[in-house]
Design a protein that fits this description.
single chain; 538 residues; mainly beta; Jelly Rolls; globular
Length: 538
Amino acid sequence: KKIQLNYGNSQAKSESNGNETFVFFDDFSGNNLNMNKWEVYFEPKDLSATVEKGELTVEDLTGSGSYLISKDLISIDTRTIVKFKEEQTGGTAPQEMYIGLLDEPYDIKNAIYSECCPRFPYRTWGFVTIADGFDNSSECDGSQDFYHYRVNEYRWYKNKTEYYCNDILKTTNYACIPTNDLHLAIHVTYSNSFICDWIIVTNLVEEQGEIKFNDNFDDNAKNFTKWTEIYDNGTWNETNNRTELKVYECEYNAPNINIEGVRSSDFTVSLSKTKSVKVKWDWDTQIESNGANVGNLCFVLTDSSNLYNRNYIMVIYNRDNNNIYYEDSTIPRSKAIFNRDDGVWNNEILVFSDRYHVRSDDNNSGWVLNNNIFSPNPTLKIEMYITGEIESSYNYYIAGFDNVNVEIPIYGKQPPFPPNVDIEKTNLLPVLDHRFVITATDPDDDDVSFYVEWGEDENTGEWYRVDDPLPSSNGQLLLNHRWFSLGTYIIKIKAIDVHGTISNQKEFKITIGFTKNKSIPYSFNLNKLLNLPFLKKY
């Protein structure tokens, strides 16, 4: 597509049309609320919604809490963004305001919504809750100022919700969209108000490459042209729009552990240093259990059914220590790349001829440099199975696999993954140099640079370039930095590739100071010392 920019013609008319661009759009132009788009819902209709100078002001008049909702249902996809610019304004009582997607505006039990509460007496000053209709919720604190304009963004995916404030990821909740057609709703309570400058709803459409294999299990029926049962020591069911595997543990004297799983049909790909295959799937590590707390979930990409003579890449979740590992046919099990209690995660293996990468949510292995695990044109298959290990034959657990997709990616369009930062400790001394190791993996194998804010001056950062291209550098950047004032600093890091696509921001805190258990032997003015010319930053 071409975007043409004309200038110098005072008679030129704008071709901009938000209504045709987005699923839902309102920039509140003019001085009246567009009643073709909105209505006040729920009796008594005690909510004031006025438009002036391109801004919507929503105020709860009596405290009973009505809703401003979209008149029409909005078509929702599996990746939907609601983005708006708003400011909390008046009121003295605790405020609860949410913007969400609801099938019944007064019944949030079957909805996905978010809450902003800038003054709640039992909470941190300003917090945001994101939740769904299935009792899943998560919160982030109010480090942002609710009384200044900020851009909020809620990204609803099939299995999780993310909240961004001013393009910074604040919290994630593993929620799911309950229906395909929902109302957009704005709700304010306790006689408070807020101003909204604009609001949009859009469905993300990710450009896909060639699909080699796919199964979302939504038919709830075993597809024997795609899957064959293996290791049949348990049960395999297609239910709840996923594959569910059940296995019992073994007694201590059992000769072998119990295993249950399935193997996919074959698919053929081409691999080189510039051609790859991307394999994605979702894990639900414990759907049901009567006490079993050991066992593994395994996902295998392999070129053979022969367990004793094959090439493979395997990702393992160990339920005993809550770690995710990876291994291949040339290296033993790796160190853990992820530690987390049972949950629902999106996972990925990206394979080139000379390297591969493993990701689970935003945690990744970095490039694993390993030549020719598979041939240039391998015929591959997937194995998904769980193990019962040895504990008690009365204990069982059920785990789920979902949304298995094998794709030949289109390159030059994907952002780098969020950077990883390695530092020996987070309590550091002033004046001294401290070493940071920053790494990032780019799925397109593009060169990456890093933007780093050291927390000393807000919104001022530095760009750093990795001299060698991936994968030889493995996206690694070594930096030294020193601080001259005591305090807590929030370091913010992004990765950017050569096409200008930017990763999500990674943040972490460090403290510059002296440990509580150590004393300074002589009394002196630390701030004066740190400002001596020969100690100043160079």
